[in-house]
């Protein structure tokens, strides 16, 4: 009986740690935008959230190469920029502390792109 209880406790502890490690914190938030126009010429947009504390600059650049980009900032929270384009992969910029800019820039792909400030 003691051996059986020990196994169950191990399963519960392991299961609980998996839940904790995959659960997002309650304070996590995302400012997300989708491309408002096509990709025939360069464009840039700006959005804000979290009572104007979060900023997201995003767009499509054609200067050197065709690229999708997202630049994220938050005045007080840790944050990072991310985007998903036609390759169906989320690309993540470096995590930054408040007032620093996180940037992600990738070669353009697809017809729909999602841009995020994750804070």
TrEMBL record:
Q: Which UniProt keywords are given for this protein, alphabetically ordered?
A: Signal
Region forming the signal peptide: 1-28
Q: What is the name of the protein in this document?
A: Uncharacterized protein
Task: Identify the species of origin.
Answer: Niallia taxi
